[in-house]
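Quick one from the shared queue. A colleague (R.T.) flagged Ancillary SecYEG translocon subunit as missing a structural entry in our internal table.

Convert sequence to C-alpha cells.
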Amino acid sequence: MSGQYDLEEQERIAELKAWWEDNRWFVIGAIVAAIVAFGGWKGWNHYKRTSAEDASLMFTPVADAVKAKDTKALDTGAQALMAKHPGSFRASEAALYSAKAAFDAGKNAEAREKLEWVVKNGPKELQGVARLRLAAVLMDEKKYPEALTVLDQNKDEAFVALVADLRGDVMLSQGRLDEARASYKLAIEKAEPRNPVKQVAEVKLNALGGAQ
C-alpha cells in the first residue's frame, strides 16, 4: 500500500509542478496585484489624512485674510488651496469667502467664477450654498433666466426653503407677482418653525398682500 501511496503522491506532486509551471506567472501577478492594491489603499488613506491636514494649514492664512479684510491675500490663499486640494472642504470654503469678497467689491465675474467652481467641485453641503449665492449674483446682474436655471439644479431637500425664497425674489424682480407669492408660500411651508427663512418669507408674502 505504501508503495502505491508513494506513487500516487509522486503523481500529484508532478501534476502540481506542471500546473505551477503553466500558471506561476498568473499566480505571482495576482499576488503582486493584491499587495500593490493593499499598499495603494493604505497609501490613499495616508494621503487623505495628510492632504486634509495640509489643506487645514493652508486655510489658516485665508482665515487671517478674512479677518483682516485683505482681499488680495484672501484670493491668493484661496487660489492656492483650490489648485492643490480641489476636493477638500477647506478649498471650497476658501472659494466661498473669496467669492463674497469679490461680490462686495463689485467684481461679479470673479464671484461667479469661484461660485461655479464650488458648485462643480465642492462637497454637497457647500455646493448648495454656492448655488444659492450664484443665483443671487445672477439676479443682481438681472440675468433672471440664468438665476432660475441655477436654482432648478438644487436636488438637496435641506435647501428647498432657501431656494423657494430666492426664487420668489427672482420672480418679484421681474414683476411676476403671482409666481413670487407661490414661491414664498412654498418657502414658508418647507422651512422648519425656527428657520429664519420662514419668517422672512412670511414678511415678503404679507407685503404682497398674502397668498390670495
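DSSP finds nine helices and no strands in the chain.
The chain has a mean pLDDT of 80.
Added to the table.
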